[in-house]
Amino acid sequence: MTPAALADLIRDKATGHAGRFIVAIAGPPASGKTTLARDLQRHLGAGARVVAMDGFHYDDAVLTAQGHLARKGAPHTFDVAGLRHCLERIRAGDTVAIPVFDRQLELSRAAADVVLPTDRIILVEGNYLLLDAEPWSGLAAMFDVRILLRASEAVLTARLLARWQHYGRADGPDRVRTNDLPNARTVLTQSTGADLVLDH
Predict the structure, then answer these.
(1) CB 40 within 8 A of CB 48
(2) Of 187, 118, 114, nearest to 149 (Cα)?
(3) What 3-state class would DSSP assign to 124?
(4) Other beta carbons less than 10 A from residue 73's beta carbon
(5) What is the DSSP letter of 59?
(6) What is the chain's mean pLDDT, rounded?
(7) What's the Cα-to-Cα distance from 121 to each of 20, 91, 113, 144, 187, rounded to whole Å?
(8) What is the CATH number of the domain that holds 130?
(9) How many separate domains does the chain show?
(10) 3-class secondary-structure state, position 168
């Protein structure tokens, strides 16, 4: 399904919906979530806003203190409660400042974007939005449509290696093997409740 066709589907489902319409776009790292979310935002036009789960990464200093820095990006390295609170405020129709993850700096910038009252369709993208494990499973009720992206491990590996090379990370191959691919397998084997599954 093309982004334009998917945008039409979302627009149709959102028609007549009271309040904000929240779409989950889940999938393993490098499955194309961010690209799809931005494409959908462009096709949906004014009133669509992207909220990225990655903004809720714990800072490296916190992960170092907890002994989890090597697993940054795994389910336990995110502020899930903070994400849920943000989504509850978005659902309520508030103006909501949201954090944005800066991949170049490897940190989240607080209040780097804002969901405005005029934003009616919210595209939430992130790895674990459909994860069938606490505390992530508590997010399910927040979404009106749930989309899961999938890709083969070979495709994901190639994309992840290219990503880390782009950011100049010499440890890219090790990160892919010891962290990114285990995270991808978690998403692909433990995500449930998708209304639409796309091989991407």
Answers:
(1) yes
(2) 187
(3) strand
(4) 18
(5) P
(6) 96
(7) 6, 10, 15, 10, 24
(8) 3.40.50.300
(9) 1
(10) coil
Query: Considering only CA atoms, which of 112, 77, 129, 119 is closest in space to residue 95?
Result: 119
Q: Which two tokens stand for residue 186?
A: 């978690």
- Percent of the chain's residues with pLDDT above 90: 90
* pLDDT tens digits for range 107-166: 999 999 999 999 999 999 999 999 999 999 999 999 999 999 999 999 999 999 999 898
Helix 153-166 / helix 181-190 crossing angle, nearest 10 deg: 140
- Phi/psi for 71 (5° steps) reads -110, 20
Residue 36, domain extent: 3-199
pLDDT-derived band at 103, boundaries 50, 70, 90: confident
* End-to-end alpha carbon distance in the chain: 10
C-alpha radius of gyration, the chain, whole number: 16
Q: Which of 38, 49, 39, 60 is nearest to 14 (CA)?
A: 49
Angle at CA of residue 110, ends 109 and 115, nearest 5°: 110
Q: Which two tokens stand for residue 69?
A: 């820095």
The helix-helix angle for 3-14 and 33-44 (nearest 10°) equals 60
